[in-house]
Amino acid sequence: MTAAPERTAREAKGLGDGRVGLLGAVVIGVSTIAPAYTLTGALGPTASAVGDHLPAIFLVGFVPMLLVALGYRALNSAMPDAGTTFTWSSRAFGPWIGWMGGWGLLAATVLVLSNLAGIAVDFFYLMLSQLTGDESIADLAANVPVNVATCLVFMALACWVSYRGLEATKVVQYVLVAFQLVVLVWFAVAAFVHVARGTAPAGLTLDPGWFNPLGVDSFSSFAAGISLSVFIYWGWDVVLTMNEETQGARTTPGRAALSTIAVIVVLYLTMALAVLSFSGTGTDGLGLGNEDIQENLFAALASPVMGPVAILMSLSVLASSAASLQSTFISPARTLLAMGHYGALPPRYAHVSRRFQSPGYATVVSAVVASVFYAVMRVLSEDVLWDTISALGMMVCFYYGVTALACVWYFRGSWRGDVKAFLSTCLAPLVGGVLLLVFFVQTAVDSTDPSYGSGSQVGGVGLVFVLGIGVLALGVVVMLVQRARRPGFFRGRTIPVGRSTTDA
Q: What residue intervals traverse the membrane (predicted)?
């Protein structure tokens, strides 16, 4: 294949064209980010790292996401390809960096599927316990065989919906996303009402200093907070992987990405201010610094904030994790499809279901890998699973950073004399990409400390570092195996290295 990918890719893969519009794409983007699920586990650890500067860190974490999204939008406009990071990085930098960029996306998305399923299991049994008034039902989530079996059922159901294509996905997401957003706004309003009435545990007045990122104690704390904030924004790029199935493939996905990020940053700031003013950052009781409640903050705050309707928060987090579990299948399945299509993986990964026009084989493989990973990790240790999720922030920074720099390199020189093009295809993605790669390096260095994450270690080295760098190293091994078996892609025959030949 010698023709430019931007002219030929969309007609070649067999995905259903025009299945999703702007609103549907934004809904799926918000679903993948899973605000209710993400916030319940991220608000506490982030507050522990940066104290009451939580809103500032959420804003700073939003900046590189916005800058990188501008680069994604430019690349999508030139090359609307379901492979996104893999295809674009291969086109800009060559097959080796492109393959590793795709691997970073695959590792992050496939591994987080297992965590989403695990959270869904926990809240499923918590919901049943609240409905029946039988507290022993909630304890079933701690029963490993029951937990794993339930998780596999959830994974299979999510895989089934995803296999049926984006139309089935869209219908499910409208209901689940709308419900969790309504409950989160309800929670925030109720928290502010408690503060106004003087019935909140902390009852803090909103302080402009909370928005000052320079008030964070150290750069390590700042980097740790940013890594967590990057993770909570992660997922918006799913709208780009649907580009070949979206109405207006060259423009709609980019607009959907920016719209998704805008919706999420407003929601996150609202929730951060609500919980901070209600609970404070203390280490006792309902304080955000209390390690006993950090892994599931809403489970602790729902009753004090929402009173008799607290069960709605459990339902919201369950809906959030279930919705994200299903929509998160979109990215790895379509990346695997593209890698099979271009010869970077065996051709069976390029199989598209004739009935549903979806990447059937790749979707099933993603589900199987995530299910096996969850089952093994759950049996071995819950800390291993938590540390793996912590390590995902490193991979997110890695592949977002690589994609942003691919935009700069691909469009190099095409923006001369055009200020708007220079800002959107050079300056913005360059700053965003460099920032994320700096955070990647800083987090990698800090995570070598055995006390990082859960405190687990291997040979005196922090488990988060071992998992994060280990997964990337595994990608190198798999890449070398594929290089020996499928040399065509690695010689640039399917995705030739190139640069933009038109104005950005």
A: 20-44, 56-75, 96-128, 140-163, 175-196, 216-236, 256-278, 298-319, 358-377, 389-410, 422-441, 461-481
